[in-house]
Amino acid sequence: MSETDYLSGWADLAYASRHMVFEHCADAIALLDPYADRFSDLNIATCKLFGYPRQELLLLPVSKLFGHQLADLIVFSQAVLEKGHGWSDEFSCNCKSGERIELEIKATALQVKGQTQIILVLREQSQQRYQQDQAETERAMRGGLLEWRNILNLFKETERDNQLLLSAVGDGIYSIDNQGLATFVNPAGARMLGWEPADMIGKNIHRIHHHSHADGSHYPVEDCPIYRAVHDGVVHEGRQEVFWRRDGSCFPVEFTSTPVISDSRLVGAVVVFRDITERRTTELQLQTALEELKQLKARLEEQNAYLQEEIHIEHNYREIVGQSEPILKIIKQIDVVAPTDASVLIHGESGTGKELIARAIHQASRRSKHPLIRVNCAAIPAELFESEFFGHIRGAFTGAVRDRVGRFELADGGTLFLDEIGEIPLDLQSKLLRVLQEGQFERVGEERTRKVDVRIVAATNRNLREEVQAKRFREDLYFRLNVFPIQSPALRERPMDIAPLAMHFISEVGRRLNLPGKRLRTVDMERLQRYAWPGNIRELQNVIERALITAQGDTLAIDLPDDLPSSRMPRSAPTEATILTDEQLRQLERDNTLAALQACDGKLFGKDGAAHLLGIKPTTLASRLKRLGLSMEPQER
Predict the structure, then answer these.
(1) Span 169-275 CATH architecture
(2) Which H or E run includes 499?
(3) Is the domain 3-129 a CATH 1.10.8.10 member?
(4) What b/e string do you get for 137-147 counting C-beta neighbours within 10 Å, with b at 16 or more?
(5) Is pTM beyond 0.70 here?
(6) Cβ proximity of 440 and 449 under 8 Å
(7) Which of 601-637 are b and which e, b meaning 16 or more Cβ less than 10 Å from the residue's Cβ?
(8) pLDDT tens sequence across 228-264
(9) Which residues pair with 85 in a beta bridge?
(10) Is the alpha carbon torsion for 531, 537, 539, 542 positive or negative?
(11) What pLDDT digit, counting tens, does each position of 308-330 carry?
(12) Beta bridge partner(s), residue 405
């Protein structure tokens, strides 16, 4: 056998011997991985102590055994990792049988394969006390009188040990007589109060550290829970009290005042107190975090409620429909301004689709993942404008039963669409201007200043320049809003878009009302194109919806006043509404034919075909399709 093999064999034997000693040691020993919340290794005595099989105990989280003292276990483990060792007799664990046993724990930190772990030596306190009592009793019986003298000395030593223990404990401890004078103060208590123990003995303890409340008001001696225990013989506790130091500063404490009874009479009390500054700080931080979460939850609930409300609002259409010159101009303007954060002011008559333009701007912007919040300024009572815009806190005014998030806060990171901006009261316009300039506001009834990042898109059917001249609208607010103006054209200014819009509404509204397959006659389409549409696109949608509801068959009957167009058309340019160029006529014919094909789902001939809808012969339709370059293949139905 070589020397290497010989040394290797001795090493293996030594390892086996050490493992056998660990395995069969009478004390429960466990190797704790504090970062994995698991035992890395343990011996037989540990399994017997907890009542679990080895494999089950190795897989069991340590926090489950000490779940009721998890915070104390974490603090103890952290102290062991920092100091290298530790001891405690304040822990109890849950056995598999359901019994809870009290433990004495000795701990040592060490490196195992480059990772810091903790060796725990666990002893059951009741068993240890029983063994000690048994040993003392056996020695007493063997030693007779001499041993009893030793027991007496032991009691004296125990008393001295108790004094040392009281002096070493981290909590403050002192005792008072029935007059409230200090008879004992441990070093930790004196240190927390900024005194020397000898300077406190024989003095009125209440006047030293408990003489006033946290706000500085007087704390009468007769109200002191510490002194009350001396008079009524009942244990008193303090949870939210403060103790004062010698230098005049104070700190939060929790304490217990326990009466001391000797020969059936109250002779004093023992007080144990603890500085809870760190815990209170943690609690305040937790409360602050919970309050922030509460506010965030409230904001999300408000935002969700708003968005749910928006879902039920009937929008004119999902996309911009039309190919007229004014619409193409608006699309180009949207492409230019959407990627920026510039304020946009949309001018136009009611019903022209100003909100649709605002939504298109938002969807094409970098804020599209955040909400678009709409405010109809014309629908808000004057006294609620500020609350609607900026929110309020509970009790700010009559009826404010809870905190409310305003529209600016809901739109943070997104876009705020102010419809009918000209209706905002003059006294609120200055506050709106401040938010636009500084991005700051206060809720009604609150002094806290909040910051928001909001893009403004406004719309109006008023001439704001005239409003500014009439002193009904602030000039500085007008220029702040009118960075990029967009003019939303009236429907009468884009007659070539009427046919596509009508077909769009027939499809969209028909799907919503479950009335598919409806179509317009050529004569009705011509009536729609001749009408002046004072209510613009909104009126067209209403007309189509009414026709869908009242339709008796597949063909719609348009209910439209025929005697109004001439009076509703602009008088300044009567020839422009009737005279079309040859190219415009061809485009109108093409659009009208495509609308008929769409209404018939591509079917060309027959009772419900495009030819019948247009009022022409099938051969005429075929020639027209060929001339216009459109497909003549009918779709299968």
Answers:
(1) 2-Layer Sandwich (3.30)
(2) helix 498-512
(3) no
(4) eeeeeeeeeeb
(5) no
(6) yes
(7) bebbbeebbbbbbbebeeeebeebbeeeeeeeebeee
(8) 888 888 888 888 788 989 888 889 888 888 888 887 7
(9) 108
(10) positive
(11) 555 444 443 346 888 888 888 99
(12) 391
